[in-house]
Amino acid sequence: MTPIRMVDLQSQYLKIKEEINKAISEVIESTVFIKGPQVSEFERELEKYLGIKHVITCANGTDALMIALMAIDLKPGDEVITPTFTFIATVETIAFLGLKPILADVDQATFNIDCSKLEKLITPKTKAIIPVHLFGQCANMAEILEFSKKHNLFVIEDTAQANGSDYIYKNGTKQKAGTIGHIGCTSFFPSKNLGCFGDGGAMFTNDDALNEKLRIIANHGMKTRYYHDILGVNSRLDTIQAAVLSIKLKYLDSYNLARQNAAQFYNKALNGIDKLKIPICAGYSTHIYHQYTISILNGKRDNLKEHLEKSGIPAMIYYPVPLHLQKAFMNLGYKKGDFPVSELLTSQVLSLPMHTELDEEQLNYITNNLAAFFN
Asked: For the whole model, what pTM was predicted?
């Protein structure tokens, strides 16, 4: 059996090595490392895949969130609602711009923002909401859109972990994650379902005016070179990364299917184990399993992690501390007990190896060792 990795990018690369190397070599030979034609080509390809008018690439997913917030003209002190159980970038960008993060608890079944808790968070200063499509499935966007329309809020989707996931409306129609709100933001970090060979990110929108503004902000605030109309930043997807992403975009659906197949293997093998809860796929979303995250209900999550690692099986805790209890956000005034579901999850969740190259022998080894822990 080949060694088990949390993410196996090397094996994935070897399958498309010739295509990738050719694309990178073409960029190197052209020496157009910034704003080469591959960047706009990738943007057009991703627009077609997502079914959206505009894709604006940038340097990373955190920049995408920050630029999106800059584009909607919020003022210092304006409030933005987002979940406390997520990666720090979502809240970090809100605070960095002088805005006030208003944190929300999550649904215990889906790990996504609990829409039933949103109404009590509204104040006259609430201007936007950032739902996070955590671990690979969409938040409940129909309810979020209804809530945002009622309170006249901007909706910025954080879809860094859900590239390729579909939101499913009650009438059966579908929209890709990140294309539903005013702006969608994503990351192309190497371990993502659609990942490059370094840092990269993008924003999505159907709004022509927002598209123009996002592009200007990401380019030092200029539309015409050396004429700076607004305050901007320097955030570009470099040409080599765009070339890599164009190749990998062709395989995204097959990559997501491989993850779904691995998840189904996990589900079948682990379902019914007492004190272990497998991830739930919400009826309103497909799940592309950026992470396969189980919950350990007997208080022995850390013991299980140690047991797996001794057997050569990596496992990760996403996330060990909710954002409202992080030292960086103590000034927000939250305390332990404010978000009981998120706090409980941080003591229960454990993510198992999940990537496109998992084979049946590895999956059997992982699940047999995991089941043995509970016997």
From this structure: 0.97
